[in-house]
Design goal:
about 65% helix; 5 helices; mainly alpha
Length: about 130
């Protein structure tokens, strides 16, 4: 359950950053941002896989780049349902979806599915004779 709330907060963080960086995306209150992050999570879990399967031929032709258009359309769909989350144009939705995907990817590299943080330790190479000095 903790992992679910952590990913929801990651989506919220990504939405807030996109709203502050990209002109044309506005979140009018924290409550609307929380609702938008929740609905975005539901849309990504339920609707996005169906849309990806239905658009598989064009996705194959574009080598997966059409997925960016799908992400933008779904972000615009969420903005249409949440009254305090406004996206003014499709290019704003496109760059917003790109930024949200990037931020979510970077943060999710360090968070596992159950919400625990993953640490990457660097191993020292040695040839069996002890540490190098």
């Amino acid at each position: 359950m903790f992992g679910f709330f952590l990913r929801w907060s990651i989506n919220l963080l990504a939405l807030v950053i996109a709203g502050s960086v990209i002109p044309g995306i506005r979140i009018q209150s924290l409550q609307m941002g929380i609702i938008a992050a929740g609905i975005l999570g539901i849309v990504n879990a339920v609707i996005r896989p169906v849309v990806l399967i239905l658009t598989l031929p064009i996705n194959l032709l574009t080598l997966g780049l059409f997925t960016l258009v799908i992400n933008a359309a779904l972000l615009k769909l969420v903005a249409d349902f949440v009254p305090g989350f406004v996206i003014e144009s499709f290019p704003a939705a496109f760059f917003g979806a790109l930024l949200i995907s990037f931020i979510s990817w970077v943060v999710n590299v360090f968070v596992s599915g159950d919400g625990t943080f993953i640490f990457i330790k660097r191993a020292n190479k040695s040839n069996g004779r002890g540490p190098h000095k």
